[in-house]
Amino acid sequence: MLIPSLQALREHYPESELHVLTSQAAAPLLQHHPALTKVWILPRLRGRARIKNSWPVLRTLRAEKFDRSVDFGGNDRGAIVSLLCGAPERLGIASPGGFFGRRFCYTNTIAPAPQDRHESLRLFHILTAWNLPLPSAVRPSLFTDPSLAAMASDLLPGGTILCHTGAGISKKEWPLTHWTTLHRLASSAGCRLVFSHGVGQREENAMHQLKSLLPEAKILPALKLAEFIAVLKQARALISNDTGPMHFAAALGVPVVALFGPTSVEKWSPLGEKVRVLRAEGCSCAPTLHDCQKAVPCMAGISPESVFRSLLEVLSGN
Questions:
Q1: Alpha helices, H only, 238-303
Q2: Which residues partner with 163 through β-bridges?
Q3: Predicted confidence pLDDT, tens digits, the chain (318 residues)
Q4: Alpha-carbon distance 50 to 305, whole Å?
């Protein structure tokens, strides 16, 4: 979601060095992007601030003598890191909450964007404080590690449609019985489907269940993020629950059929020309719930037949 803002910075400051500080988990999404000069990794554990572990990186960053910094995170950690990196001009969000001295970590702040905007536009709103125009292409662009291309081709032969069955929370997941029906519809039409999943135990268990329902299913092994996006780049199309891979595929230019339930399509839909979004109508799951509370899960309202039709449409370019 941040990449369009990075593209805007590169277009507005074409001669500048553009560095990004991020977590180890997110780094593979940025490390090969041509708009960036360098990607820095900050050691971190969610919910814990350990300046002692981070200080060697921050000290090296200070030695770079940056002219400007912008904090897209908008939390206490981001504010403190902005201050410690030492840029004389530091931009951030003037959001309520946080520790008392947070506002003093920045030299320039801007009010938060309305929450109903798409997340990419909400992040870009920060840069309007520097009078930056939107980039020429709002769609994110993603670049893979070229050294992984051969591995990716071996794991996912050309012309294969990838189906990502996992999601961060179970109420976003399309039922396994629907995936099974979709596989049979697609196979009857000559389409080759392969399944992928996340690395959590719940998603591993789901793949065992899928294999029992569909013994002929081909399932990718658990992959590191850099490996996964290299494999995804090879796909003819992706069918995915509302989760990270649908955004990765759209940024790679891979056609996407995205399955949404309780999440806002307007705020979180993947950005791309080859995207079809299907929504489970009438989904009323409370935002705080991990699991759907209905006897028939909300996501079951998206039929395998409608997903298959959308797949054919996105493959044909209609």
A1: 244-252, 265-268
A2: 195, 239
A3: 999 999 999 999 999 999 999 999 999 999 999 999 999 998 765 555 566 778 889 899 999 999 999 999 888 888 989 999 999 999 999 887 778 888 889 999 999 998 889 999 999 999 999 999 877 767 889 999 999 999 999 999 989 999 999 998 888 999 999 999 999 999 999 999 999 998 888 888 999 999 999 999 999 998 999 999 999 999 999 999 999 999 999 999 999 999 999 888 999 999 988 999 999 987 777 777 788 777 778 899 999 999 999 999 999 876
A4: 50
Whole-angstrom distance, CA of residue 140 vs CA of residue 148: 21
pTM across the whole model:
0.91
CB-CB contact of 86 with 61 (8 Å) = yes
What letter represents residue 111's amino acid?
A: A
**Residue 63, phi then psi, degrees to nearest 5:** -70, -20
Q: Are 81 and 62 in contact (CB under 8 A)?
A: no
Strand partners, 219: 195
195 within 8 A of 220, measured Cβ to Cβ: yes
**Domains contained in the chain, CATH given:** 3-130 (3.40.50.2000), 148-316 (3.40.50.2000)
